[in-house]
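Duplicate of #3305? Posting structure anyway:
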């Protein structure tokens, strides 16, 4: 049994059709009507996927930027608080006892 491959013309280009018999190539020239919902998804699936991917990427960049800035701010506040407490400690140590 030899498998043969043929190009079948369709509305959106050529489709490969395989034949299980070796009795020649089977060319199917009739164009089947495409379902409306299949046509909709063929038309809009890729643009919608690109927009969703770009939106997700933009959200992630904004989120991680916000997290980085928030972390830097908290670190700066803790450092300032630590410096103030160290100064207070040195003042208390240097203060003469009564």
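Output from current build:
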């Amino acid at each position: 049994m030899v498998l043969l491959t043929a190009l079948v013309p369709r509305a959106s280009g050529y489709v490969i059709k395989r034949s299980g018999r070796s009795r020649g190539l089977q060319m199917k020239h009739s164009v089947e009507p495409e379902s409306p919902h299949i046509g909709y998804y063929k038309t809009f699936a890729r643009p919608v996927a690109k927009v969703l991917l770009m939106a997700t990427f933009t959200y992630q960049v904004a989120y991680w930027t916000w997290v980085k800035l928030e972390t830097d701010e908290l670190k700066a506040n803790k450092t300032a608080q630590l410096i103030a407490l160290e100064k207070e400690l040195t003042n208390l140590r240097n203060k003469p006892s009564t």
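Confirmed duplicate; merging threads. The beta strands are 4-10, 13-19. The longest strand covers residues 4-10.
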